[in-house]
């Protein structure tokens, strides 16, 4: 089984916990420390099928110093601390595996600074990506990383998130310039800076990005911003075969076209989208494209891509150049998950997240779909294929252990297929505890170095314990 | 004084060293272990003004396993090990501050694999960037990172190098996908993989990139490649004022134009280039541009940039669209260092490498030039200004302690000016030991975390000791 759920074992005694909570109330006041069951439950689950594992208490700090003082208190009592943004992660990242205190950062929602000339800004960790883009609306700038959910920028940094336009703008790895971090002993450090590049020592920023709260708690984030392109247009094109679609992607990526988005949806997913969003796209492997640039540049890019697609059996280009048409198209794409769930009312989704070299993409998808066809389950596929990242969504009855086991077995084979060809078990969702069973297979001897890092940064293992590495 | 040179203090006794060398000869054969003075001296200096500090021996391994075995032997005797690529670094990175064994990786010069479909390749650490691009010539691909010197890709990874086209293609940070690394105890690990993105745990790849051989020795590197653009063109434009040039850069960066290169040269540097390369550019602040894309796209980009430049007092655009003209233009730019030295025969250069937010660039350059004007020294300025990175080259008589001290004082003020506005002491050269005096000012409390990392990875401090952090 891929994702064995550890039973929730509380690490500290009730009296130690009570003492810690009393000190936290002194620090933050009663109103910002909650032990109410509903609040705890809400903070113990994410958007995935993983079970709820509530913390013992939830706190709501408003400043970096409050976070640092709270961590110092918890450290003194050996109480685990779990950072929480919007709870939209997918691998049990926020589950309190050993109990402890969840640090809800949603009140740290200030946009500290925007520098249009420097194309950067600093935000508190609880600011969400939509909030930031709303704030930027009149500046001509935007923050492109778009994981679908309106996640917090702290959470996105912590999971190294990306989404549909990573092919052009990169992931959180490329777009976080610097961080303020609270360490396991309550120290506050700043990493990186505002220079767009630096060779001044170890890349602490990149070390914390993707560390899921296990090495420190990010409280402020400095981000790159981008000018809103002069022109944007989108297009949809269906293909006779999956191979034709993937070959088109390879050709486009080898050209010098700066694609903004290039998304693959399989026939099952197109069927789901048609039903859900009342559309009539052909039920066939389909690519969604988006082009950003100057007016003439975007037109030229689109023509070149159409020629590649036609060579590979793609036809029936549908263009979307107005803002309204583009929104309709991408809304349909963003609703893919709910559309898929709609294929089977009452079902939940077990989502995979492999990323493979593009040359292996067609084979990997083909084998994955063949494996699904031989099972009793339904599934749909969407992919950020410019990056080689795709999600197979297995539709399961959450009350059927047999179906869960079957989906997990399919998922496990998919992950090992991806790792065998040089890929990764998770392109953008992160490890949480759901992906831990695959880490050794993916990283081999390097896992010992990850454990070494965790021990160096968090010798008492109080920072989001049981995530990324078990020590 | 900015760069106090520590006297070379040999860490281990002569007998321990002899025993280690004897074992290394058993491992590699007499021919691949040298203690000849000329070989040691050659490996104890780089291209900068820092003094030669030779190692006690130099070895020439040919495989990762040989490197691992050599490190194991040295570790057993407590002998420092210093990796060496081409010796083109600039901050004393290869100086054997405490003696020890230099591991020359130039015989590890195999290109292991190129995957055109995936736009990636794996090379041994001793492969140089020109060797790789020569090898790629018929594939339609190239590796863009260009620090000027024909450095090894291992050395470029170790110093997080970049160069003129980082504004479009990023630095080594963005272009290393994975590594094979030998750790301080001789263990071999692989980091990263061939997926273009991953959220699977701590970003070990980015931790080793820029670590200058102090956390491990890179032996193989997996790199991103790019399709050669359909069209490229370059242009030179001079400005009435430095501010006009920098304002143009800011406007260009805020637009959606994917600039390939945008380089600033000050009047003194243009004068030097004219004399050295027999050219007749106006002696004024000047921008060198390069555009990559489709035929029409490149033309359009160039027209937009020309309009921005004209708004800011730029005039007399000189275009270079043929390969020959482009080469002549960029050769002149790449010869800037030698051209500057030519202004004062017999002089050597003390090169700075600050990188600042673009909004601070004009002020920072202005103050730096004013400071120079009040000194007795000559200097020239070139900048990768799309990134906010610039190099002030101070021309010094290497036999004049007074001039060295004056240049160091100017440099020190420049670095603190950059740090004060959110910048970094080194954008692309790295720390070595030359930049250590500025690390605390730049990183503050985060320096303790860098020391923590160094201790966790290298408890006996045998990996290139005295570089990046002192412990």
From TrEMBL, chains A, B:
<dbReference type="InterPro" id="IPR016171">
    <property type="entry name" value="Vanillyl_alc_oxidase_C-sub2"/>
</dbReference>
<dbReference type="Pfam" id="PF01565">
    <property type="entry name" value="FAD_binding_4"/>
</dbReference>
<dbReference type="GO" id="GO:0008720">
    <property type="term" value="F:D-lactate dehydrogenase (NAD+) activity"/>
</dbReference>
<dbReference type="GO" id="GO:1903457">
    <property type="term" value="P:lactate catabolic process"/>
</dbReference>
<dbReference type="InterPro" id="IPR006094">
    <property type="entry name" value="Oxid_FAD_bind_N"/>
</dbReference>
<keyword id="KW-0285">Flavoprotein</keyword>
<dbReference type="InterPro" id="IPR016169">
    <property type="entry name" value="FAD-bd_PCMH_sub2"/>
</dbReference>
<feature type="domain" description="FAD-binding PCMH-type">
    <location>
        <begin position="51"/>
        <end position="228"/>
    </location>
</feature>
<keyword id="KW-0560">Oxidoreductase</keyword>
<keyword id="KW-0809">Transit peptide</keyword>
<dbReference type="InterPro" id="IPR004113">
    <property type="entry name" value="FAD-bd_oxidored_4_C"/>
</dbReference>
<dbReference type="InterPro" id="IPR016166">
    <property type="entry name" value="FAD-bd_PCMH"/>
</dbReference>
<dbReference type="GO" id="GO:0071949">
    <property type="term" value="F:FAD binding"/>
</dbReference>
<dbReference type="GO" id="GO:0004458">
    <property type="term" value="F:D-lactate dehydrogenase (cytochrome) activity"/>
</dbReference>
<protein>
    <recommendedName>
        <fullName>D-lactate dehydrogenase (cytochrome)</fullName>
        <ecNumber>1.1.2.4</ecNumber>
    </recommendedName>
</protein>
<comment type="similarity">
    <text>Belongs to the FAD-binding oxidoreductase/transferase type 4 family.</text>
</comment>
<keyword id="KW-0274">FAD</keyword>
<dbReference type="Pfam" id="PF02913">
    <property type="entry name" value="FAD-oxidase_C"/>
</dbReference>
<dbReference type="InterPro" id="IPR016164">
    <property type="entry name" value="FAD-linked_Oxase-like_C"/>
</dbReference>
<dbReference type="InterPro" id="IPR036318">
    <property type="entry name" value="FAD-bd_PCMH-like_sf"/>
</dbReference>
């Amino acid at each position: 089984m891929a994702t064995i759920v550890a039973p929730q074992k509380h690490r500290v005694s009730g009296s130690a916990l009570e003492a810690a909570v009393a000190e936290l109330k002194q620090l933050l006041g009663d109103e910002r420390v909650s032990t109410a069951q509903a609040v705890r439950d809400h903070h113990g689950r994410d958007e995935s099928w993983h079970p709820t594992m509530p913390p013992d208490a939830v706190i709501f700090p408003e400043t970096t110093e409050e976070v640092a003082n709270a961590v110092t208190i918890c450290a003194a009592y050996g109480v685990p601390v779990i950072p929480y943004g919007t709870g939209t992660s997918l691998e049990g990242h926020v589950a309190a595996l050993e109990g402890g205190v969840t640090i809800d950062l949603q009140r740290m929602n200030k946009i500290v600074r925007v520098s249009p000339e420097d194309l950067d800004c600093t935000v508190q960790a609880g600011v969400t990506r939509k909030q930031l883009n709303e704030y930027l609306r009149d500046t001509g700038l935007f923050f492109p990383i778009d994981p679908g959910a309106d996640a917090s920028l702290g959470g996105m940094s912590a999971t190294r998130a990306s989404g549909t336009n990573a092919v052009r703008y990169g992931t959180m790895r490329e777009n976080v310039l610097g961080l303020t971090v609270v360490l396991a002993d309550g120290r506050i450090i700043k990493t990186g800076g505002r220079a767009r590049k630096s060779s001044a020592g170890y890349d602490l920023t990149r070390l914390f990005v993707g560390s899921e709260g296990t090495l420190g708690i990010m409280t402020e984030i400095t981000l790159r911003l981008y000018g809103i392109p002069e022109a944007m247009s989108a297009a949809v094109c269906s293909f006779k075969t999956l191979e034709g679609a993937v070959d088109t992607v390879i050709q486009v990526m080898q050209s010098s076209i700066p694609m903004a988005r290039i998304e693959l949806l399989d026939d099952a997913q197109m069927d789901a989208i048609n039903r859900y969003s009342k559309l009539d796209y052909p039920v066939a492997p389909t690519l969604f494209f988006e082009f950003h640039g100057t007016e003439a540049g975007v037109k030229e890019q689109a023509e070149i891509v159409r020629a590649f697609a036609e060579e590979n059996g793609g036809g029936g280009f549908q263009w979307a150049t107005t803002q309204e048409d583009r929104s309709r198209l991408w809304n349909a794409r963003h609703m893919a998950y709910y559309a898929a769930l709609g294929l089977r009312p009452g079902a939940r989704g077990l989502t995979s997240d492999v990323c493979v070299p593009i040359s292996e993409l067609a084979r990997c998808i083909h084998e994955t779909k063949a494996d699904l066809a031989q099972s009793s389950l339904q599934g749909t596929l969407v992919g950020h294929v410019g990056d080689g990242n795709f999600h197979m969504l297995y539709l399961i009855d959450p009350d059927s252990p047999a179906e869960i086991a079957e989906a997990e077995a399919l998922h496990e084979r998919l992950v090992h297929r991806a790792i065998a060809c040089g890929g990764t078990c998770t392109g953008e969702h992160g490890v949480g505890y759901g992906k831990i069973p695959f880490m050794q297979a993916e990283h081999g001897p390097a896992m010992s170095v990850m454990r070494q890092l965790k021990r160096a940064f968090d010798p008492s293992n109080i920072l989001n314990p049981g995530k990324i590495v078990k020590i």
